[in-house]
């Protein structure tokens, strides 16, 4: 594989999953970790991604509520966000996860809709802070410098004290058989706590992530009440999920 092809594949993986490990990239590309590290360093210097310890993050994985021009599959994520917002009801108590798709959802909440919204994402909180009808509650804790979400034992303890009508979640990987998975153990513990605190969990996921999996399991697919993609619910790509106890939107 040519260096240019290899680096383009790295960019695609980072854009799709927001955060990736060097070891995972090396395994996927069948090259050494040192080779991937050099590629990531070059791509960082060329402003194609951001190099972090042990991995890389997408430039679209922003630290602020301002929309980045580098958001991957933005049109698809906007379709998903619009569908998610259609589920909201006046006076609902909801949770919105971090990540670019969930941030698009926060942007689309109607300004006159009264909601109580919990989040541990600083970008989502910044976006919602300008909406006077939203009673915004930020769940604190140790802030991750990469994703700008709070995490750790304190955050999980606070989540145990709430009961959401709906929790709108993102995921790194989703599969009809293996459920929702991530490469980050701490993120998995957070998402588990959110699901436990929710009457209904709603997954926001672009179709490119379907039928993918990683090391650490967040939950089985049937623990999700609704899965929203940019696809029509009748699309054949969703056939494996149609056999699960899951609403497709």
Walk me through this protein's architecture:
This protein is α/β, with parallel strands linked by helices. It is 35% helix and 22% strand. It is built from nine helices and 15 strands. Strands 6-5-4-9-12-14-15 form a seven-stranded parallel beta sheet, sandwiched between helices. β5, α6 and β6 form a beta-alpha-beta unit. α4 packs across α5. The longest helix is centred in the first third of the chain and has 15 residues. The termini are far apart. The model has no long low-confidence stretch (mean pLDDT 91).
Q: What key attributes describe this structure?
A:
single chain, 249 residues, alpha/beta, three-stranded antiparallel sheet, 9 helices, globular
Put the structure in a nutshell.
It contains 9 helices and 15 strands.
Helix content: 25-40%
Q: What overall form do the CA principal axes indicate?
A: globular
Low-confidence segments, given as residue ranges, are: none
Give the helices and strands as they follow along the chain: HEHHEEHEHEHEEEHEEEHEEEHE
Major beta sheet, specifics? 7 strands, parallel
Termini Cα gap: 39 Å
Strand content: 15-25%
What integer value in Å does the Rg equal?
Answer: 18 Å
Spatial order of the strands forming the largest sheet? 6-5-4-9-12-14-15
| Number of helical elements | 9
How many strand units?
Answer: 15
Mean pLDDT: 91
